């Protein structure tokens, strides 16, 4: 079992584009078909008005995706570079099995 805690505070948005993800977890998650670990992500200073944000770690992965839900949509979608400002902050904490 792996315990992960993170606090990421941007000081500049940079030039990255596409869907947001965090990579470099120390071990790949357990390789069980259909198993997805989800966990809440707290945020501040995002450019989109999210009502809920969360991380999603797929089976046999060492990186997780960042997804969000807005008041206008009921379906979660990947948060892209457009959702972040130069001062965005995200915080997360979760366990996963290896």
List the helices and strands and how they pair.
Blueprint: E1 2-9, E2 21-23, E3 37-46, E4 50-57, E5 63-70, E6 77-78, E7 84-96
Antiparallel strand pairs: 1-7, 2-5, 3-4, 3-7, 4-5, 5-6
In summary, what is this structure?
With 98 residues, the protein is mainly beta. 0% of the residues lie in helices and 53% in strands.
Verbal overview:
By secondary structure, the protein is mainly β. It is built from no helices and seven strands. Strands 1, 2, 3, 4, 5, 6 and 7 form a seven-stranded antiparallel sheet that branches. The mean pLDDT is 94.
As an assembly, this protein is single chain
Integer-rounded radius of gyration: 14 Å
Mean of all residue-level pLDDT scores: 94
Uncertain residue segments: none
């Amino acid at each position: 079992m792996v315990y992960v805690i993170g606090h990421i505070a941007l000081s500049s948005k940079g030039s990255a584009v596409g869907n947001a993800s965090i990579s470099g977890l120390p071990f790949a998650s357990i390789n069980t078909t259909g198993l997805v670990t989800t966990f809440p992500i707290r945020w501040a200073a995002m450019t989109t008005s999210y009502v809920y944000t969360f991380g999603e770690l797929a089976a046999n992965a060492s990186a997780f995706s960042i997804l969000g839900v807005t008041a206008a949509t009921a379906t979660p979608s990947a948060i892209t570079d457009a959702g972040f400002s130069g001062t965005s902050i995200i915080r997360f904490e979760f366990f996963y099995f290896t």
